[in-house]
Amino acid sequence: MAVMINIQNISKQYKDSDSQSLENVVLQIPQQSVFGLLGPNGAGKTTLISILCGILKPTSGSFEIDGSSSVQNPSEIKNKIGVVPQEYALYPTLTAFENLMYFGSLYNVPKKELKLKITDYLTHLGLSNFMHKKVQTFSGGMKRRVNLIAGILHNPKVLFLDEPTVGVDVQSRATIISYLKELNKKGTTIVYTSHLMAEAEDFCTDIAIIDQGKIFIQGTPKELIQNTPNARKLEEVFIALTGKNLRDVV
Ligand SMILES: Nc1ncnc2c1ncn2[C@@H]1O[C@H](COP(=O)(O)OP(=O)(O)OP(=O)(O)O)[C@@H](O)[C@H]1O
């Protein structure tokens, strides 16, 4: 197995917190996998993804992406990854096209190439008729699709998505997942978080279940189901490992 992301003993404790949000996380994410990072609320998924994207610094530990080290070559990593955050990162008063021209220019994609790409991606994701409309008039599903395009304009080798289908209708979700599958087929490694177990079971080639900052288990959906007594689907594996207790914290 060729490894795309190698995570070595990452721990994270936020400044104002008395417990660790990640504790000695060790993970290997295979090249060209669709890797699902699953866990209950507060498990540490966003924290881990934010560290891998360079948005947060770990308290200890390091990682490599495509052979580039987070300690020695963080700027090399920046060019290899794309990020689709949970919150919309779009300017509401700009059009979809203007938003994407802005995000593409941050990665120095040449203007002519950028225009062609934006038109192509918006068309593929069913938004060709809305290209020049302001994003503030868009539905949640339309914003999610523009948010996704913003993360892939520079052809990243690895794409991180934090709950890319949250709050969207069935149609938008199907469009997003099938587009991501196409990207993956062409070579992009995808790391994604979700609370939707059926979606993850269908979409992911590999899964890690995280809870209270620790990785519990890693494997293909099939392996995880086969290795859990009486489980027929991923949701049952998830409940068997993480329990039924609510994870509300204030
Ligand atoms: N900025 C912060 N300061 C202090 N603690 C934080 C901060 N951000 C997250 N935490 C804590 O770190 C832990 C992990 O949070 P994180 O957001 O990574 O979980 P998550 O798995 O992404 O949850 P969700 O599914 O709700 O998005 C939680 O206990 C959370 O309260």
TrEMBL record:
Gene3D superfamilies: P-loop containing nucleotide triphosphate hydrolases
Domain ABC transporter per the UniProt entry, residue ranges: 5-237
GO-annotated molecular function: ATP binding; ATP hydrolysis activity
Keyword Nucleotide-binding: yes
InterPro entries per the UniProt record, alphabetical: AAA+_ATPase, ABC_transporter-like_ATP-bd, ABC_transporter-like_CS, P-loop_NTPase
Pfam families to which the protein is assigned, alphabetical: ABC_tran
Domain of life where this protein originates: Bacteria
Keyword Ribonucleoprotein: no
UniProt cross-references to SMART domains, sorted A to Z: AAA
Keywords from the UniProt entry: ATP-binding, Nucleotide-binding
PANTHER family: LINEARMYCIN RESISTANCE ATP-BINDING PROTEIN LNRL
Protein's name according to its UniProt entry: ABC-2 type transport system ATP-binding protein
Species for this entry: Paenimyroides marinum
